[in-house]
Amino acid sequence: MIGLSLSDALRREAMVVDWVRDGNDAAEALAHAEHAIALIDLGLPGKSGFELIETARRVGNKIPVIVLTARDGVNDRVSGLELGADDYLVKPFEVRELFARMRAVLRRHAGVAQSIFEAGALRLDFASHALSYHGATYILSAREFALIASFGPAASIRKVADSAFPSWKRLRSDTASASISITDAIAAACAPASH
User: Fold this and answer.
1) Helical ranges in the chain per DSSP H
2) Domain 2-109 is classified in which CATH homologous superfamily?
3) pLDDT tens sequence across 165-193
């Protein structure tokens, strides 16, 4: 089953995966859970992949979407993209290509055209999930990276759930401003602890 092997491959790349097997469950997940990216098969039972994309876009859900399908006709590809998919990949495909497409889509949604984002002394590598700040490197967990990728580096800390960043809990007490940017939070998290 492609879903199981794909889920396993994503997890091996330190990604957090919520795998749903039908369109109705997928619609529920898109409506109520926060994900960095959605990989949608057009041939799901229940709601079709086309219906999922159309509904998500109609209600303002901006989640990046990559369609994974055996449908290789031009009309299907055009329909998927025009409904709001960010990319379209025909089965069978190489997992490495899917990962590269996922990174590219996440970069575009974060407003970054290249795989390295730099702001002052801060550097975020979208391929390796490595953060560097003044030479100190921190490898982001899958959840930390997914949130940064989905919110973008200029997002407000208020938008990011504290529970998703357990290693950054000290920011709550160290930060007076609720409008600190993710970039500032990353810088604070990577900075050497003062004694």
Assistant:
1) 2-12, 23-32, 49-58, 74-83, 95-109, 142-151, 170-174, 182-190
2) Response regulator (3.40.50.2300)
3) 444 444 444 444 444 455 565 556 555 55
